[in-house]
Amino acid sequence: MHRPVETRLTKPRRYQLKKEAAAILKSGHPWIFRRHVSSAASVFPSGQWLRLVDGANQVVGYGFYHDAGAIAVRVLRQGAEPPGLEWARSLVRAALDRRSVLRRETGAFRAIHGENDGLPAVTADIYSDVAVVSSYARGADPVARLCARLLRQELPLGGVLWKPGSRRHDETSGSRTLFGRVPERARFLEESQAITVAPHWGQKSGSFLDLRGLRRYLRTAELQGASVLDLFSYSGTLGAAAEIAGAGRIWHIDSSRAALDLGAQAHVLDPEKHRFTEADVFEWLPALAPEERFDLAIADPPAMTSRTAQVPKVLRAYDALYRKLATHVNPGGMVVACCCTSRVGADLFLVTVRRALGRDFRFLTRLPPEPDHPVGFKEADYLKILLFRRKLSS
Fold first, then answer.
1. Domain containing residue 142: CATH number
2. Which listed site, 142, 198, 273, 302, has its alpha carbon 20 to 30 Å from 17?
3. Are residues 248 and 385 in the same domain?
4. Per-residue pLDDT averaged across 22-32, rounded?
5. What pLDDT is recorded for position 172?
6. Which tens digit of pLDDT belongs to each residue from 83-139?
7. For residue 5, is pLDDT > 90?
8. Which of 9-13, 218-222, 334-338 is least confident?
9. Alpha-carbon span 10 to 172, nearest angstrom
10. Do the Cβ atoms of 132 and 159 come closer than 8 Å?
11. For the segment 291-345, what is each residue's pLDDT rounded down to a tens digit?
């Protein structure tokens, strides 16, 4: 007996996998790269759902197609059974179960983390009673909408905002309220730190939940009276965490005036300690006066590329950034180096930053990913947070 049509997400088209691609699917990897698909796939529009068959004409899985970039197919499900309502419900519930401890500790968490939770190209961030569901590929839009509906059934939500992949680059109509009311600002408590987000605009879903571990580290660091430079600060939650630890001077640099204004309004305890400057960091830092020195320097630039061919250029930018930053760190001071460019692996980023900072700096550790940002496969290890300390004397 066939399932009712309303439980099926979208009608797929047949696509026969090459032998190598079928082996990748069987291995459990959620992506089939373009080099592993045949030219026959080029007839599909971006976002087209596919019924994947092997050389024996057996259905071995389902996925959706991308017409550009390194990833050709994101795998939705292995096996002959198509993705449907119960498939999505079981994955959403499993993801929430894995976050049960975290949900008791903070008012905000990532409920769904894409492929790592079995729901490719879909994320869902919870801020108190507001959910921001995003899809970052056109083919994931039906799954994202279904996840939004399922999250309403599992959590006490007052509003659900959807940011569809099909409108990802449309700043004027890039989000839609699917349910209830989504305020211009949402607030939550992360341990002792109050954080405000703007769900309707800005980067990601309005905040950076993957930096929770770094904020935790900074709130408990020995920063009494310290001077802090927060580059690419967005709304200043990292600098605010340093203030909780006792920092005496915090300078936030970011290219978004709106994000800086949000930080100034919502994330400072003592306004006299903070300075907010709108600037392009890559232009601002080289012009910084040599006498400006800091006990803690944080650099968290946005993703620099999604293309492997651009990695050498990105590494040169990182090298220039950290070479200059090293000259503005006091002896005994720290550098926090962050990288969310997925094409730059952890080892390569460490080597690049270590070389740029020079022998006066000692690598301390890499902070692990947060439990609501699990790393289910190699390419998903996108966020690298490295800590360095400058020697007291050369």
1. 3.30.750.80
2. 142
3. yes
4. 95
5. 40
6. 999 999 999 999 999 999 999 889 899 999 999 999 999 999 999 999 999 998 989
7. no
8. 9-13
9. 27
10. no
11. 999 999 999 999 887 788 889 999 999 999 999 999 999 999 999 999 999 899 9
Please check whether residue 199 lies inside any domain of the structure: no
CB 234 within 8 A of CB 203: yes
The model's pLDDT over 149-208, given as tens digits with 9 standing for 90+, comes to: 999 999 999 999 999 986 554 444 578 999 999 999 999 999 999 999 999 987 778 889
Of 148, 143, 204, 209, the residue nearest 176 (C-alpha): 148
Outline where the chain has alpha helix (H).
19-27, 85-98, 100-103, 141-154, 212-219, 237-244, 257-266, 281-284, 311-326, 346-357
Decide if 357 contacts 324 (C-beta within 8 A): no
Whether residue 346 is found in the same domain as residue 244: yes
Class of residue 222 by CB neighbours under 10 A (exposed 0-12, middle 13-18, buried 19+)? exposed
The answer to the question of residue 343 being in a domain is yes
Please give the Cα distance from 58 to 300 (Å, whole number): 46
Domain that holds residue 35: 5-78
Same domain, 70 and 95: no
CB atoms near residue 392 (< 10 Å)? 10
Three-class HEC string of 208-261: CHHHHHHHHHHHCCCCCCCEEEEECCCCCHHHHHHHHCCCCEEEEEECCHHHHH
Q: Round to whole Å and give the CA distance between 76 and 250.
A: 45
Q: How many domains does the chain have?
A: 3
C-alpha triplet 139, 163, 195: angle, nearest 5°: 140
Same domain, 38 and 137: no
What's at 321, amino acid-wise? L
Question: Residue 35 is part of a domain; what is its CATH number?
Answer: 2.30.130.10
Residue in 342, 338, 339 with CA at minimum distance from that of residue 307? 342
**Domain identity same for 317 and 370:** yes
Residue in the structure block whose two tokens are 């990695």: 311
Average pLDDT of the chain?
93
- Are 119 and 158 in the same domain? yes
